[in-house]
Amino acid sequence: MPTVTPLQRKLFPLLYLPSRLYAMAMRLRRQWYESGALISYRPDRPTISIGNICWGGTGKTPLTEWIVQWALSEELTPAVLTRGYKASPPELPYLVHEQSTADEAGDEPLLLARSCPEALIVVDPKRARAARWIGDRSKPDLYLLDDGFQHLGIDRHLDLVLLRPQDLTDDWNRVIPAGPWREGEEALSRAAAFLIKAPLDEFRALEPFCKELLGRFKAPVFPFTFSPKGLTRLDRHESARGFGDEPYLLVSGVGEHEQVRLTAEKLLGHPPVKHLRYDDHYSYQEDDWTFIRHQADRMNAERVICTGKDAVKLSRFKTHNLWTFDHTLDFGPGLFTSHSFPDWWRATWPLL
After folding, report:
1. Which of 39, 60, 203, 282 could form a disulfide with 223 if both were Cys (CB 3.0 to 4.6 A apart)?
2. Is 49 strand, coil or helix?
């Protein structure tokens, strides 16, 4: 669904000029960094930004995890530099560990630290400071800038830009406050590759838009999707493919609730008896978990299912029968290239 709201559409004539002024300000800011008027820190190891042009979720954390896992498989030490949205770390920079709390680290950094404990996950809004700090202590082999496309205070060797299907249709170049884009379309010239979270059939339908709008940037375009492969129980680490016809309650505190619901239905074969939706990065409290359990009991749903991002925050409660998704990241054939993303990445890495 497009994210330009009905109010933004109605007020577009009034919002157009502020939108262009905001895009111009972002372009000038970028030019100041490129000219050296504003200083960027350049780490001495390959630095890759994983970001997007719009507000909202596009799959940055799963892609970051994929690259981290690849790096570890190559016996490289990756460092992820992240702002840690809504985090309150005891110090800055803060090296996230498996025993950190979501309040200290933020939900997505903690999720990465628990899924990739050998990686270095560093929380600090000042990512240049974090890069210097972790570089002095641990000498990582590569740096990943989580949500780093607009974070120009640290120089990078390449930008991976994630797009949603609606970015190529209704939302194209709709810059704040007229839409969800954080920069104007000319900013996409910085991309080394584009990745679009869409199943292959939807990606094929988007090819005319990709050719018209993205072709001029001379960068490959890759589709990717999350494929659910099963469920894991939090308290006993039990795994399952599904629960037959048994009812379940679904909980999500993410940017794309509908995608979570579709994932659950695809995996379990039937919809949840109820779907409780919370704001993205929602900070669950004890009374929230009490309410969730009450709703599950009322619906005769023995099991509660949530996303991994929700699980790291709910795990501090007595989460009997709380389950979370296990995903794989699947890549389809690219556009403007003969490679898939994994092949392109393996060919690109030695050149950085």
Report:
1. 203
2. strand
